Amino acid sequence: MSKIKKSNYMNPYLAGILLGLVVIAANFISGRSVGASGAIKSAIVAGVETVAPAHAETATFYKEFNEGHTGNPLNSWLVYQMLGVILGGFLSGVLSHRLTWKVEHNPRITSRTRLIFAMAGGILFGLGSQFGRGCTSGSALSGMAVLSLGGFISMMAIFGTAFALAYFFRKLWI
Amino acid sequence: MGPLVINEIISENTNLLLAFFIGIGFGFVLEQGGFSSSRKLAGVFYGYDTVVLKVFFTGAITASLGLLFMSLFGWIDLNLVYINETYLTSAILGGIIMGAGFIMGGYCPGTSFCGAAIGKIDAIIFIIGLFIGVFIFAEGYPLWEGVFKANFMGSPRISEFFNISEGLFALMLIIVAVMMFWGAEWAEKKFPREEY
Exposed (0-12), middle (13-18) or buried (19+): which is B42, by Cβ within 10 Å? Predict the structure, then answer.
């Protein structure tokens, strides 16, 4: 018996192979691959067009978005895919008995600290995903699958920076 | 044969429906692998849990190798598959900002939705942050449009960039990945941490 308690997750290499098969299926069916931040962008555009239509017609970002898209921004591949991600994650949680409301945090910090950094991290990741034209899923994973140069650059910049900063944020995690 | 929607074997509406099922598979695998936990995700940066590295790189080499073989068998035309565009400046800048967000927030966008799906409140807060971040980018767009569009390189494959064959690059990727897996297994034994 190991002294370190382990949760019951799938073997990571098996999970990785299944993840690869999902990416292959997406490319085979749709000629594109998985993503996440693009769906948030669609939701923001749809929201701004509903709340402030005049602003959405004049501001450059929304104009450029609509040059590349027709119809409702929410009627997009990534939005349907993200709805599936939520259901798929939920089903997996049901199957493995992991459904609980909780703030997961290191006992050495308060849940309030955890939530403040979760918010800050989310804001940065949202902002960065737009500069990077995709996040860990859409740019790094999907890009690497089709051997895109940009995918490898994203992957190295994301993980390299996180490693470089890990020391400064160690109290959050260890 | 593939990609099915581009070769008009399935309709656009079928494509959107299948996107939902691909998403279910994606979310299911991420959650099963442990990507719904920020503790496990951040673990790779301290060595106590390297599930991110193992799942991510196994996924990347499986997908790239699978697609190359499918192309070889004539099952998919890789020239019709979307290749991400490379804007060098913003790819690096975006990656740096995302990396900072990753170590602070413990999630990336896809995994935060998995965490939220099983009730992680920190994941829900992270998602609210994502929306704020994307909104800031959209509203401030004129300020950084120049940086965003600088150094456009087209949509090169990394094998073209290094002027080697795709198969050779895939082989090198696999060798690097296996070496990293070996290091990851070593790190998990060296830096164990109690779960919380």
Answer: buried
